[in-house]
Design goal:
- The protein is an alpha/beta fold and 394 residues long.
- It has two domains: 200 residues, Rossmann fold (3-Layer(aba) Sandwich), CATH 3.40.50; 173 residues, Rossmann fold, CATH 3.40.50.
- Helix content is 38%, strand content 15%.
- The chain contains 14 helices and 13 strands.
- The strands form two sheets. Strands 3-2-1-4-5-6-7 form a seven-stranded parallel beta sheet, with helices on both faces. Strands 10-9-8-11-12-13 form a six-stranded parallel beta sheet, sandwiched between helices.
- Helix 2 packs across helix 14 and helix 7 crosses helix 9.
Length: 394
């Protein structure tokens, strides 16, 4: 019965889109969504904010789609629609440029004259993705990803190493935009006022230093792997770097519902529900992660990053293979909590900075803090100057 209902829903959606596709495309309309409408964040957010801050307000009509628009605060300069509503299909069918950070589903039918920018959601990744990880991906996802790549007109890259991955693994032969990652611009251009506002929103006093623990998800969703000895970690950070410390814990968005089960600890704040991890990275003094691509984003700040990987062998065997041997990375590694404390205590900032420089030179980083500006220049060209498109329609 459920399959029949799904087929009927898809048929209705295609009929709705069929009629909307007779309406003219509005050349100044931009349609954004992030992680299927779950948040206002990642690369689409920073492209949007650049437009709002630097482009005349009447030049673009900016539409964002959210799963629950009423839970997203009103943002000056954008209009909100609910994912999969009639308004959603009207807006996406009449937009000139569609921008997202994840795959579009088969329900998205690109029209002749539309332009689709796929920003993806990392500048560089440790875990293998797409075709490189095809053995661990569901067949329906692979089919959807292949179709999505056929619709794509522009794919963003943060470094030469990522470009090679995208060419090999994305079922995509079009243009790759080698100008950096919009969401990383905020990490290269510090904004003290914004940082104070973020701290204030989280209730963190200005004199506290901050460590962020942001691990990726595991297939089994076992929270036990994430339970650091926070008291010992904070004490080690005090001894090594001085000052008073607070820890933030942000689990992967896939674990949003599970995150409420985390045990509470003194001077530890669960920020899993905080939409924008880049804002968190912009205020923290130390990052602890594991296999997350956040390490590469945070690395451009030159601040200390530690990899806590107690399940390394199990993870690479059952979850996902890696692009790099961890020992080849500039970040310090610990396989248990005792090692983590020792790694913090023995941290050598001078050697770390040398290793970071060597690594980013090796991967050919494009990050200069101007990615959003460059993308908006391309969008402007597409909307108003008749820029070339790889695909007219699929």
């Amino acid at each position: 019965m459920s399959r029949l209902v799904e087929r009927v829903k898809k048929h209705i959606i295609f009929v709705i889109q069929y009629f909307f596709q007779f309406l003219p495309i509005k050349k100044n309309k931009l349609f954004f969504f992030s992680y299927y409408g779950s948040q206002y964040g990642c690369n689409p957010k920073y492209i949007t904010e650049y437009i709002i801050e630097h482009i005349p307000k009447d030049k673009f009509d900016i539409v964002w789609a959210f799963s629950e628009p009423t839970k997203i605060k009103d943002i000056k300069g954008i209009r909100k629609v609910k994912m999969m509503s009639i308004s959603y299909f009207y807006e996406i069918c009449t937009s000139k440029v569609i921008i997202t950070n994840f795959r579009t589903t088969n329900l998205f039918r690109k029209r002749k004259g539309q332009y689709y920018i796929q920003t993806w959601h990392s500048s560089l990744r440790l875990k293998q993705i797409e075709k490189d990880a095809i053995a661990s991906l569901p067949a329906n996802y692979v089919e959807m990803a292949k179709k999505d790549s056929q619709k794509c007109d522009l794919l963003l890259s943060g470094c030469q190493y990522s470009t090679a991955i995208l060419k090999r693994s994305f079922w995509y032969g079009g243009e790759i935009f080698e100008q950096g990652t919009p969401r990383n611009d905020v990490l290269l251009k510090e904004d003290p006022t914004k940082q104070v506002n973020i701290r204030s929103a989280l209730g963190i006093p200005t004199h506290y230093k901050i460590v962020l623990y942001a691990p990726t998800f595991r297939k089994n969703e076992d929270l036990a792997i994430y339970d650091l000895n926070y008291a010992s970690v904070l004490q080690s950070l005090r001894r090594k770097f001085g000052g008073e410390w607070m820890a933030l814990v942000k689990l992967h968005p896939h674990l949003l519902l599970e995150s409420s089960k985390l045990e509470s600890h003194e001077n530890v704040l669960n920020v899993t529900q905080y939409d924008d991890v880049q804002e968190l990275l912009s205020i923290v003094d130390v990052l602890i992660t594991d296999y997350s691509s956040l390490m590469f984003d945070y690395g451009i700040t030159q601040k200390p990053c530690f990899l806590y990987v107690p399940d390394l062998e199990e993870y690479t065997r059952h979850d996902r293979s890696l692009y790099f041997d961890l020992k080849a990375l500039p970040f310090r590694i610990a396989k248990n909590q005792e090692q983590l404390l020792k790694t913090i205590a023995s941290f050598d900032g001078e050697n770390y900075h040398v290793d970071l420089h060597t690594f980013f030179k090796k991967v050919g980083s494009f990050e200069e803090g101007k990615a959003s500006e460059k993308v908006v220049e391309r969008i402007t060209e597409i909307c108003f100057e008749g820029g070339k498109k790889r695909n007219e329609a699929v």
